[in-house]
Amino acid sequence: MWTAKASGLGLFVVASLSCALPALAQDAKPAPAAPAPAASPAPATPAPAAPAPGAAGTAWSAEVATGNQGITLDEAQIKVVKAVSDYFNGVSTLKGNFVQTTSDQKKMKGKFSLLRPGKFRFDYALPSKQIIISDGEQLAIQDLDLRNEDRIQLDQTPFRLLLRKDVDLVRDAKIMEVQEAEDLMVVALQDKSPDTPGRIKVYLSTKPAVELKEWVTTDAQGIETRVELADVKMGEKLDPAAFKIQGVSNNPLQTPH
Q1: Comparing C-alpha atoms, which of 200, 170, 199 is closest to residue 89?
Q2: What is the CA radius of gyration of the chain?
Q3: What H or E segment, with its residue span, contains residue 203?
């Protein structure tokens, strides 16, 4: 979800900012049958190509969209998607810990905080000196060790759908997958806007209360990055100054309180 150049950190954010749609599975075209001699049996027709598999890690049956077309939601699926929208609309602040796992099973951890609408911050634990921060308009990926940063407009990432003031995923998102279990809701989505590429899949527990547990993003090469949350606290007062993007040369390495 940020940029691929910052040693694993980037994979967390860039999978969201720059992920492109997975390529559509191409139907195999059978080769034309060669003329058969008289009385010879006709060659067998090649079987059509198998459909593209569903999203990795799916633990139960679910409808999954392919390419850039969302699924047609039934009433039960609309209810799930609206419940996810209601959760994000009800969030004012979140804070806690996170673990990021890349496709090659490398892990990084740290602390995060979120202030809706639009602001969030991820401070990676030492020895990393990396921070990902959004001030509500821009998203900055900073490496304080290398003293460099990349910036992108928040509206160019899938996070705008979840962190905007008025979250309505039925209205604003292409829903690519919906799953519901006894204690879990899973929704995969991408923005309807062609100017906002990227796909994100969110996992929310439903017991004892609805809570964001993790998300998975996919980059242009189909590489997945998972971010799991722990010790999540909702509604605590956060300092808005912690979400101000400072220049790398002026940015002390510290986790906001």
Answers
A1: 170
A2: 21
A3: strand 199-205
Half-sphere exposure of 8 (CA within 13 A, CB side): 18
The residue to which tokens 């602040």 are assigned: 93
| Pairwise CA distance, residues 41 & 34, whole Å | 12
Stretch among 65-69, 149-153, 235-239 having the lowest mean pLDDT: 65-69
Q: What is the pLDDT of residues 141-200, one digit of tens each?
A: 999 888 888 998 998 888 889 999 999 999 999 999 999 999 999 999 988 887 777 789
Give the whole-angstrom CA distance, residue 117 versus residue 114. 9
| 3 state SS for 123-168 | EECCCCCEEEEEECCEEEEEECCCCEEEEEEHHHCCHHHHHCCCCC
Phi/psi at 19 (nearest 5 deg)? Answer: -70, 135
Full-model pTM: 0.72
Report the candidate in 8, 15, 56 with the shortest Cα–Cα distance to residue 158.
Answer: 15
- As a CATH number, domain 9-20+63-234 is 2.50.20.10
Q: The tokens 């690519």 sit on which residue?
A: 176
Closest CA to 25 of 5, 58, 46, 54: 54
Q: How far apart are CA 58 and CA 50, in angstroms?
A: 18
Place of tokens 């705008």: 160
**Domain coordinates of the chain in residue numbers?**
9-20+63-234
Query: Can you tell me whether residue 54 is helix, strand or coil?
Result: coil
Query: How far is the C-alpha of 76 from the C-alpha of 253, rounded, in Å?
Result: 46
